[in-house]
Design goal:
Structural class: alpha/beta
Strand order of the largest sheet: 3-4-5-6-9-10-11-12
Distance between the termini: 49 Å
Number of strands: 12
Shape: globular
Radius of gyration: 19 Å
Largest sheet: 8 strands, parallel
Order of helices and strands: EEEHEHEHEEEHEHEHEHHEHH
Length: about 350
Amino acid sequence: MKKLPKLSKKVCINTKKVPVTLPKCPPPVLTLNNGIKMPSFGLGTWLAPPGEVGEVVKQAIEVGYRLFDCAWLYSNEKEIGEGLRSKISEGSVYREDLFICTKLWNTFHEQEKVVPACRASLKNFGLDYLDLYLIHFPTAQKGRRVNPKLPFKNAENLDYDYVKTWKGMEECVKLGLTKSIGISNFNSQQVLRVLDNCDITPVINQIEVTPFLPQHKLIKFCKSHFIEIMGYSPLGSPARPWAKPDDKMLSLEDPTLINIGERYKKSGSQVVLRYVFQLGTIPIPKTSNLQRLKHNISIFDFELDHNEMCAINQAFKNGVRVCHAEELKDNIHYPFHLVEE
């Protein structure tokens, strides 16, 4: 494979952009609490197939995606970086058009490990800076090899305060490694502890948001502190490796979704994504299929009314959590003991 150059934010090799097909109604852009602009819809990359994810990223850019949600845990930062830099090099997009998010894994929570971990991710991507760097979980684990499909299997808990980890995150901003920092999977009490001890306010809390788990209270709490919400697994993560045969799955063929979708000529999945967006979140569904890439992002030409939002709540809300990380329940900072619905 041809080695692609490391690109800074100002670089676009071709002086004339290669045309890309943008959606008729692109995602709105929101302003974070630090003044940075961020797309309100993105592509998740967990379990994106090795050997394919680079091409998926290129296809996503071509159909209008600008926000890419990544993580060191996913073990595909290098391939994603190749896809990003390829589109920048050919002139399809400028670096400053993109919003790249990645995450600090649990085994790097010690304050002195945060900056090196961020630098390692930047090296993987071949980029000079991140747009957003998140603490993946408030729970620290002892260092060991991690399986991205089953990241908590045989996990050894480490009692380490995420407030100290946050100080390392702030150093990443001060060093220019990332423009913004945030958190993921933090409950309201943990968010408040960070706010009470921070010099730089988190811009994002990335949490699971689905019709099963709409997170109304936590979303409202974070918004009251000017923290935006990224919603992961909006379609219920049906391919999650730890799913059990009797686990409840989100049916995109549910009559409630189909009936609502017929009014707007939309599918069940599009109705769900629009629902999650209207809850006040930035949905980041994952797909490796070109048609679904186009399909998923085409949710900004209709709006669910109050009765339709309520109907989805009534049909699905049951508190089922897809990413429960139950292996970490004994960790002092396990976030999901607190029920916030």
